């Protein structure tokens, strides 16, 4: 299946999910609730679309590794020296 | 309180038990044995003791105000803005944790059982059922957990009993004679899953009917779960040996394959595997629920499940991108996960406890002088 077909399929599914799920939020009169829901849903939709379109998304695990690497280096080296299998 | 439902102490204990076993039941023996070798079970035992001490600390935190959950406590103790910042960090961690758990079950299914099925399909199916549970609320989740608990409990017990004839104690000897430093260092990665993740129950404790008995249930659940973790690691080591346990990413599944009773009862590992489908499922559901609850608190929404669907999108994206391959995942879980989780499982709770105690004392002094 090509990327574009996948994307169209996902968009249709997302629209169906939105219609079904938003109906319960629509009943509430609170505008803030609706605004927060729509913006997070839209953000989620964009992220999944990028994934479907096979765009290279940055990996948050890499950020964690980079942030912790300087502090953890001695600990990691020590652990590696006890590793059973290399 | 956003959450209107209440669960019983029994249900809470079962939830804690299922969460403790969660993903650890399949991966912990391998993690601890990688560094502690034949003393892997001792590393898990010591991690369990530290885990119980952490639970004691979480219980003291929950006592600061029994009616407030984790996110409400953070705002009450640190004030609106710092409290919100801490809540946001915790929420990011839980999002990462949920995605990691989903990836773990996806990896397990796609490499061991349904090898032809794409991992994304398996993850989406698991996430959809979890989403359904989150939408139905805490009460329904707890009742469902009650239904599946006997199966998970007895299947794991049966696994332990049925592999007993093949136990070879010499595989773990000499005990604590070699690799002492490695054994103690293995406690840190062993703590990462599940003990440093157990703080999420501070968010659920206010929704248990009797807070006092709930705290007891918290300890019983973790204690029972830890017993199973130690026992399974012990069995993996004595049946499969240290080398084989460390080499396999899912040694418990391999352990299930060794079951053979009078050449009649064989290849029943899938029955045991289904048991941890339940434990992992409930771990994902609880993480997802707390994430949804926390987001509703963060944005001051009226319902706990308002953002559950958008959050499901985030979880599936993160689960797909967070580990490009199994080697990367293994490297992350062995070296980085425990220190990362320690910030949320130790550092933040200690801060909450210290500042919270000072605040409660000040409040008491003011009321006394009045």
Automatic annotation (TrEMBL), chain A:
Keywords per UniProt: Membrane, Transmembrane, Transmembrane helix
Protein's UniProt keywords contain Membrane: yes
Segments passing through the bilayer: 39-57
Domain of life, per lineage: Bacteria
Protein name in the entry: Putative membrane protein
Species per Swiss-Prot/TrEMBL record: Salirhabdus euzebyi
Taxonomic placement: Bacteria, Bacillati, Bacillota, Bacilli, Bacillales
TrEMBL record, chain B:
GO biological process: spore germination
Membrane disposition: Multi-pass membrane protein
Subcellular location, record wording: Membrane
One CC-aspect GO term: membrane
A Pfam family reported for this protein in Swiss-Prot or TrEMBL: Spore_permease
UniProt xrefs under InterPro entries: Spore_GerAB
Protein name per UniProt: Spore germination protein KB
């Amino acid at each position: 299946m090509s990327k574009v077909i996948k994307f169209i399929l996902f968009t249709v599914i997302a629209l169906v999910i939105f219609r079904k799920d938003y109906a319960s939020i629509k009943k509430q009169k609170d505008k803030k609730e609706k605004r927060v829901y729509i913006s997070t849903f839209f953000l989620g939709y964009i992220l999944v679309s990028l994934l479907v379109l096979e765009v290279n998304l940055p990996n948050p695990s890499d950020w964690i590794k980079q942030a912790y690497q300087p502090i953890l280096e001695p600990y990691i080296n020590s652990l590696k020296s006890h590793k059973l299998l290399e | 309180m956003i959450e209107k439902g209440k669960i019983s102490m029994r249900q809470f204990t079962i939830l804690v038990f299922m969460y403790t076993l969660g993903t650890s039941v399949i991966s912990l023996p391998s993690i601890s044995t990688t560094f502690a070798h034949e003393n892997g079970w001792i590393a898990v035992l010591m991690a369990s003791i530290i885990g119980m001490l952490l639970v004691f600390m979480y219980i003291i935190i929950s006592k600061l105000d029994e009616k407030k959950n984790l996110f409400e406590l953070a705002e009450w103790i640190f004030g609106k803005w710092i409290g919100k910042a801490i809540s946001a960090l915790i929420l990011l961690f839980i999002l990462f944790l949920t995605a990691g758990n989903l990836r773990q079950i996806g990896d397990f299914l796609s490499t061991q059982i349904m090898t032809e099925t794409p991992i994304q399909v398996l993850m989406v199916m698991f996430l959809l059922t979890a989403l359904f549970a989150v939408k139905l609320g805490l009460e329904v989740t707890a009742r469902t957990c009650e239904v599946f608990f006997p199966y998970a409990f007895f299947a794991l017990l049966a696994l332990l009993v049925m592999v007993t004839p093949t136990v070879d104690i010499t595989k773990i000897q000499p005990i604590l004679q070699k690799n002492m430093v490695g054994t103690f260092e293995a406690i840190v990665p062993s703590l990462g899953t599940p003990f440093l993740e157990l703080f999420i129950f501070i968010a659920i404790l206010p929704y248990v009917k009797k807070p006092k008995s709930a705290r007891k249930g918290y300890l019983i659940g973790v204690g029972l779960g830890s017993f199973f973790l130690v026992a399974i690691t012990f069995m993996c080591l004595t049946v499969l040996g240290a080398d084989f346990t460390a080499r396999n990413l899912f040694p418990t599944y391999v352990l299930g394959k060794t079951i053979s009773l009078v050449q009649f009862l064989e290849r029943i590992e899938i029955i045991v595997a289904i048991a941890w489908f339940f434990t992992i499922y409930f771990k994902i559901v609880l993480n997802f629920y707390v994430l949804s609850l926390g987001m509703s608190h963060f944005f001051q929404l009226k319902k706990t499940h308002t953002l559950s669907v958008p959050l499901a999108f985030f979880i599936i994206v993160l689960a797909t991108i967070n580990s490009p391959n199994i080697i990367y995942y293994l490297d992350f879980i062995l070296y980085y996960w425990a220190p990362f989780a320690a910030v949320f499982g130790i550092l933040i709770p200690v801060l909450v406890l210290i500042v919270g105690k000072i605040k409660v004392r000040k409040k008491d002094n003011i009321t006394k002088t009045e």
